[in-house]
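Whether sequence alone determines local backbone shape is best considered at the level of individual chains. Part of our work consisted of pairing the sequence of a single chain with a tokenised description of its backbone. This step matters because it turns folding into a mapping between discrete strings. For completeness, the protein is quoted in full, as a sequence line and a line of structure tokens:

_____
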Amino acid sequence: MLHRLAIAFAIVIATCTGARAADLPSYPFIHVNASADLNVMPDTGEIDFEIVSTDADLEAAWKLVMARLEASRALFAEHGVAMEDISVQDILRRHLKQGDTVTGIETRGAVHVTVRKLDGWTALIQALMTMPNVESLAVSFSRSDADKIEAELVSQALGAARVKAQNIARGIGARLGPANGVALAPLKNLSNAMGLATDAPRYTTPAGAPRDPLLIAAMKLVQGVDVIYRIGK
């Protein structure tokens, strides 16, 4: 697996001018932040779509929505999706308006599907996209072992943070003490007090065109840590 470590750091002393005592530790400390990232392929897909009928007749609209729902269930079953992973979230009937004028009536059923095997993903999405009365198709991806990956990234980031803090301690002729504070997000109160606050997000999404729902792309998972170490004597 590919991973990169991106590290930024700052050393601060509790007696710095202008800092608020309530925001700072009462001992000399080294403040380090680090992050680790990992590129992985997803193993789980999520599909959301709506089945829509614009038939003004309630019974006809209901029959069409139910027929398309059964057809989509059959399609998912062909691709190994379990019935318990298919949920109909709601079926709504509403007026279509142009200004204050009612121009029609539509019936919508929202469906959510979890796909746990992605080997037939492209064929499944292609078939769903060509199915009549299907609208608002959206997909997302994730990992079934996300907790394990997060634990690995946290371990990598903490290891990098400790190495950097040790280098800082050696640079000022001191010994690195124990970690007295750890967070998985920036310590904003501390950073604000020392004038070190940034608005950088914890997670970033690459810029570019919207993702093609037919394609399964690699995911970049990022985990940051913020650590405060005592400065030993």
Remarks:
- The two ends are 40 Å apart (CA to CA).
- The mean pLDDT is 81.
